[in-house]
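Pair request: fold both.
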Amino acid sequence: MGVPVETDEITNRLVDGFESVSEPVSLLPHGLSFNKPVEIHIPHSGSESVLSVQVLHHPEDLSFETVPATSFVNETARFGTTHFSTFVVTALTKPEVSAMSASTTNFSFGKATACGCNGQAVVDAIKAHGDLSGWGGVATPEWVGSPYLGAADEVKDSRECANPALKGTKEYRNCAAGFGGCGTCWKFTTRGEANIYGNTAPGEGKVAYAVVLDNCEASNAYGNNQQWCVPYSNVAQPCNAGANACYDDAEQNCPNDDQVLGSFEDTGAWNPGDSCGSLPTMSNVDGWDCTNLAGQATHFDFAIDQANNVPWSANDNPLVTAEPIKCPDAVITILKANCGSNAPVDCFNYCSGNVPFYWPDCERPPPTPCACTGCTWDDGATCNSSEWCNKDKETCLSCSGGSWCEEGKYPVST
């Protein structure tokens, strides 16, 4: 049975930028599970807000996770669960001042993005939508994307463009859940100021909009991002790192600027250390003291050629004021159709279960266990019922950590 619990005890654990719009409800006793999902209804007062349902799985948990596949109808949140946990409906709060100075560059999306979306399908749908003129898709850097809800990776030696000090370190690149992370929407107003190339086009006051679909990582895994998506301290004036914009170029052309390496915590949060102040959040962007080499507080890789009538060209790269906004329903509908389990990519579900709340209703087909037939662990042991074959059916992955399964099926816990 769902019962109210002490409100302050629960809501004090919400992160900045969220407020509760319902009484917390607990299914007791914690630790039990239903044999099949049951539907939970929680009334709330946030009818005009960007809403989500947050869950604490255990009383000792210090932070919430987002409940995927939630619908909000008639001031009631509806979702399914198999767990006896504590739930609360939350709204995204928007401070009076949350804008950031930002640089922009041209970008393009393929079928797989770090947000678990078919990026090409998303921007194609935006471009074709009559009510989304001026809209497109963007990628954002780690300091506004953090924390990340995907799996950790290691910075490889093959990333010659990156700072050598990053190689061999742990990084997270997928499923950004920060205030500039996956599924967040932004308004951009051009400032008419010269960028690092001396270009002021298209002038001041031009407005565009975009939704975040991808990550612009500091390790330069998928492009030369040293100029734009790497944080620096002591940038007294904007610096052009050069045509290749790799670490060595930046060292040569911008010798007085210090790259902030930071580090990733096991939670997927990026920690800048003591050099940059505090990471920007929905309620506080002023505590962030670092910039990219262009001297801007953040950056947006904007898929201009794939956008819907954005008022600048692919070569303009204007400086903008970037402001987080509520995503229109049309954008949410497009995300639901092309992200998470609905991304038309084989088993493309690495954000599943932790899909950011901005597109929570990615309906998936009923999960079918991926039978672990003829698979063994590397040491020859046979897989058991809670483990699944990998994509090639040659080795096993734990159900909780595996992301590959037979085509058309999804790994589920037993």
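--- second member of the pair ---
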Amino acid sequence: MDPATVIASIALVIGFLALWVVGKQLALQTVGTIFTLVQNQSVRDARRQLFKQEENCSISELPICEWHDEWKLNADIACQAFNTAAVLLRHNSIASFLTRNRYIRDTQRIIIKIHQIALPQIEYRRNIHQSDLWHDFDWLLDKANKTPEAKKNAEKDPGFRA
């Protein structure tokens, strides 16, 4: 075999390995960014309050005109956090390919429940502001609904949308 071909082949293998390592690093950075964003104390508090209000008075079934300003703010915070996470997963091709399915599978229940609870605020904001607001959160919801875990949860809990 020609020495130039051997050297070129070795360089190609090293190049692919370097690309693989960079992809893994990007994936880890993306997961870290998403985790930091979604686990931020203000986002966690907003989600907690939404869950509490849903449990206490089923806010997802109330018209938006009956929502308190605090509920609307909490829905905005939670929706924006998940929308940003979805942007990172959807549009960062290398990182998203390596992390997307795992993240969605692990968080599908919370993604679905937050979207379900916040839906009156989502629809209200889209009607008065922009129709594509939080569309990446919708994409994330669609992916979450397609996980096998979501289908199992829907079978166990009739109020769970999948």
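Observation on the second member. The mean pLDDT is 85.
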